[in-house]
Each structure stands twice: as C-alpha cells, then as structure tokens.
Design brief:
about 280 residues; alpha/beta; nine-stranded parallel sheet; about 45% helix; globular
C-alpha cells in the first residue's frame, strides 16, 4: 500500500478539493514529507505539461496515484448523465484526454460527481441508462490504454446518485467491463454506509482506490473514525493499492498534510509488513 496526497494547479478554483496547489511545488513538498505519490485533480489533460511532470516525478522518486475529475463537473459543468447528447459527447472528449494522460501516469481515472445526478423530471432508470452508456464507452476506450476507471460513492448532501459502495457495486456489475471499480472514500462512507469495515469487505472485489480523511474531513487522527478498523478491512480484501489524503487543508495546508502523514504512515508500514507476510492461498 502506498500513500498519496491531493494536489491541483495554481489556477484551480476553490471547487478543487485538494490540499496543495502548484504542481511542481506540491510534488516536491509531498516527497519531502514522506508521501509516495500525488493525486492530480484536473479538468483537462492540457492543464499539465507531461514532460515537466515526468521530470518532477523522476527527480523526487514520486508517482501519480490517480487522476481525479471533480473539476470537470464543478468547473466545466460536464457530467455523464446530462440529458443533452452534445454535452455527453463533450465529457467523453475530456475523459479521453485524461485517460491518455493516465496511461502514462498512474493508470487510474476517478469518477466522482462527474457521474451526474438524477435531475428534476428524470427518473433513476433513465439516469442509470445514461450513466451506463457513458461509462461503458469510456471503459472501452480506457481498456486499450491499460487504464482503470473508478467510481467514487459520494454522500447525499453533495449529489443524489451513487451514494453508497453497495450502489456503486450494483452498477458496476451491470457495466460488463473488467477495467472499472470502486473508489472508496471513508469520509463519504461514514455518512452513507452501514459500517465502514463491513462495507469495504462486502464490496471488496470492486475496491480499487481509497480516499482517507477523518469524520470532520480533516487529517486522519483529528476526528472519530477508526482507521484500525478500516485498515483491517482492507487487509481482509487483500487491498494493495493507494490510500490518498483528500481532506480540508484548514488554515495551514502544510501542517494538515504533515499531521496526516505522521498519523497514517506508521499504520501503513505495519499493514505492509503484515501484507508481505501473508501466506498465498492454497
């Protein structure tokens, strides 16, 4: 398991839910703090220069954990379930560019609020049909690039479609695609899912990426979530991917990022030692 922190470009709006802004500075700072990688919050592939990104990563021995797409929804107003086919074509174009970028960096594309919502006058079955059409088209494109698309369950106060891991897993079963999965965010799960550990285990075959923040959306350790329970559940599903800090930066983003890594890194190191000692199934 590796640890990442969310970052965006300097021009990203407040709607970009990240800890730091400024790609180069953030990558170098994350490396100095002891993170293994960075999660890139982008609204288009053109926001970042690939050659520069590769240089910064090589110089710091860092990786990209995932490319997240909240700004495609919040800034560009594009989403999978838009009733207008022209708008759905636009979101597909943006995602194809991001998938091309992910083919070189990280291999994972997040779908959070960009999956869309049940609009007034639109019933759930229609919303699901539009979602499935867009998701299948993008999964098919991503398959040729060896990229996975992960659907993030988001709480009801932010969007009204795919709020729990169970709901995300049910839709993923219908896609008929193997390069898709669940993005489990424990902050949202704390609002929507029954018990975090049980939900992770129940939906374990789909979990491909994990966001960590505490119950107050601050750094792990500053709220009441039981991260030992979360890590124990991830161990039971043999999760060996990324955990990424997506939390409120507070008044001092540097201090928040430092508190997060200081709290979670010893737990992840213990997890990795236990994971390395696991016996292979007979």
């Amino acid at each position: 398991m590796k640890i990442a922190v969310t970052i965006a470009g300097r021009q990203a709006k407040d709607s970009a839910f990240v800890v730091w802004r400024g790609f180069e500075e953030s990558i170098r700072k994350a490396a100095a703090y002891g993170y293994d990688g960075v999660e890139l919050a982008l609204k288009s592939a053109g926001e970042i220069d690939r050659r520069e990104l590769r240089r910064w990563l090589d110089e710091t021995s860092m990786e990209v954990s995932c490319i997240t797409t909240g700004q495609v929804f919040a800034d560009l107003g594009l989403y999978f379930t838009h009733p207008d086919p022209i708008q759905r074509a636009k979101v597909k174009d943006v995602f194809r560019g991001l998938i091309d970028l992910a083919a070189e960096f990280g291999g994972l594309i997040n779908v959070g609020r960009t999956r869309g919502f049940i609009a007034p006058g639109q019933d759930r079955s229609e919303t699901e049909a539009l979602f499935m059409d867009t998701a299948r088209a993008l999964c098919d494109y991503a398959a040729g690039k060896d990229v996975q698309i992960v659907i993030e369950a988001v709480n009801r106060y932010e969007i009204n479609f795919i709020n729990r891991l169970d709901q995300g897993a049910a839709l993923l079963e219908k896609t008929g695609r193997v390069n898709c999965g669940l993005h489990a965010d424990v902050f949202h799960m704390n609002i929507e899912d029954d018990r975090l550990g049980e939900s992770l285990i129940r939906n374990g075959k789909w979990v491909r990426y994990v966001h960590l923040a505490d119950s107050n959306r601050l750094a792990p350790g500053l709220g009441h979530l039981d991260f030992d329970e979360i890590l124990e559940a991830l161990g039971k599903i043999a999760y060996d991917g990324w955990v990424s800090m997506e939390m409120l930066p507070g008044d001092d983003p540097d201090a928040m990022a430092k508190k997060a890594i200081d709290f979670i890194k010893p737990k992840v190191e213990a997890y990795n030692r236990a994971f390395a000692g696991r016996e292979e199934p007979a």
